[in-house]
Amino acid sequence: MQRELGVSERRVCRVLGQPRSTHRYRPVRPQHDAALGAELRRLAAAHPRYGYRRMAALLREEGWKVNRKRVARVWRREGLRIVPRRKRLRALGRVEHGCDRRKPQGPHDVWSVDFVADRTSDGRSVRVLAVIDEWTRQCVLLAARRSWVAGEVRAALLGAMKAYGAPTHLRADNGGEFTAKLVRSGLADAGVGTLYIAPGSPWQNGYQESFNGKLRDELLNLEVFDGLNEARRVLEQWRKEYNEERPHSALGYVAPAVYAARGLASGSATPRRTPVPA
Predict the structure, then answer these.
(1) Which long-range contacts (CB under 8 A, 24 or more apart) does 242-251 make?
(2) Is residue 126 classed as helix, strand or coil in its secondary structure?
(3) How many whole angstroms separate alpha carbon 129 and alpha carbon 232?
(4) Where does residue 51 rank: exposed (0-12), middle (13-18), buried (19+ CB within 10 A)?
(5) How far from 131 is each of 45, 157, 170, 271, CA to CA, in Å?
(6) In whole angstroms, what is the distance from residue 36 CA to residue 59 CA?
(7) Which of 86, 89, 70 is nearest to 78 (CA)?
(8) Does residue 227 sit in helix, strand or coil?
(9) Which residues pair with 119 in a beta bridge?
(10) CA distance 101 to 181
């Protein structure tokens, strides 16, 4: 109206009934929000699969006095987001050994195990054996080899049990490395029962599949390993960070090791079983 009628700003605002202070207002981003935005961008670059809730937990661990709403506001302002993964259709069906029916009752009640595939920079395959405690969500083993046979799987599982204590049960799919007589006899000797899910039903091992997705999103899709030794080193580093630092939403945004320690200290969690004898 100023340009077309050649009148002053004061007169236009008076005619339209808009205060001049409102018309001239320009929002100014608070300096502390600018620093928070820079920190969020740094964390998002390091953890591209984290959402604003987990970011808020990380920030509070670093000493920031922020709540979830403020983090969400700055998160949106910075244009940060997680690309949603496409949901896959899955078949119906249940078995007694699935995680939806046979749930863990405490620490070291049920461990779950699975393989995650990847490749090194030369194109050669790598198979990562991953084992987690379903109750505390702790990753007790991340071991990488080019290929696995039953004897190697047995040795790796027994090694993890010596370090953490043997579970009551081990949940696994029907892969030959897990159903082999050598593996089953080793578990039986250690007093560990087996919970095999239905063939072709990975969702029945849901805790492990959820962990596998995090491992792929937060590490394997972001790193290129030059060799097997580098893969082992980075996997072990990530495992420690996952257990000791990464906030877990299902645990109230505390790290699995912290959750396990709190449970044992309060007496609400049963202590671990006696380690497997050498």
Answers:
(1) 242/139, 242/214, 243/138, 243/139, 245/61, 247/54, 247/57, 247/58, 247/61, 248/137, 249/53, 249/54, 250/137, 251/136, 251/137
(2) strand
(3) 11
(4) middle
(5) 27, 8, 9, 19
(6) 9
(7) 70
(8) coil
(9) 125
(10) 26
The CA distances from residue 200 to 34, 63, 94, 153, 204, in Å, are: 49, 45, 11, 21, 9
What ranges make up the beta strands (E) of the chain? 110-119, 125-133, 139-145, 169-172, 193-196
At 242, the amino acid letter reads Y
Can you tell me the distance from the alpha carbon of 142 to that of 156, in angstroms, rounded to the nearest whole number? Answer: 9
pLDDT, tens digit, 9 for 90 and up, residues 254-271: 999 999 888 755 555 543
DSSP state of 246: S
Give pLDDT tens digits for 95-137.
Answer: 677 787 788 999 999 999 999 999 999 999 999 999 999 999 9
AA letter at 82: I
How buried is residue 120: exposed, middle or buried, by Cβ count under 10 Å (0-12/13-18/19+)? Answer: middle
How far separated are the first and last CA of the chain, in Å rounded?
88
Which residues face 131 on adjacent strands? Answer: 113, 141
d(CA 23, CA 15): 13
pTM over 0.90: no
Structure-token pair, residue 161 = 């049990």
pLDDT higher than 70, residue 188: yes
- The CA distance from 138 to 80, in Å, is 28
